[in-house]
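Q: My labmate handed me this sequence with no annotations at all. I'd like to see what the chain might look like in three dimensions before we decide whether it's worth expressing. Could you predict it?
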Amino acid sequence: MTLNKSILCVALSLVAFSQSSMAKDGTINFTGDIVETPCVVASDSQYQDVNLGQVKSSTFAKAKDTSAFTNFKINLEECNIATLKTATVTFRGTSDVLDTDLLAVGGEAGAAKGVGIEISDQAGKIVSMNKASDDTTLVAGQNILYFKARYKATAIPVVSGHANAQADFQLAYK
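A: Here is what I predict for the chain of 174 residues:
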């Protein structure tokens, strides 16, 4: 009987070992889209973090005061301009209540108040939230669309806190 118990213990150990060697160590999510557009958005532009940095609340002495700009870009690749030659960008997100051109910040505990995020194109023209930018003429191949963002006071005093926001972007071609 002890021999049978020993064999049973060895067999159970082997089963346990073989199952642990096949344990789940992680997950890989594969994402992407099949698109019918004249350009594809480069993977490094699809999900970006734009760090506007720490800005002192005293920077905003009156409504409409702004912080310094932070540049960001959207890379377009493999552009075929045979039929569609221009693009516009629409930034979609929650507009600030006091200035609907701005992206609202906050939504979480400890959020800043009295400030929103202003997005401008390369020429410095404001791209209002949820509205298309001016047309950008495309060239065949790669195109880089340049933008900049900054904080803008909407009410005084600006209350310090997290000034985070999220916007999606959507391209339209003409």
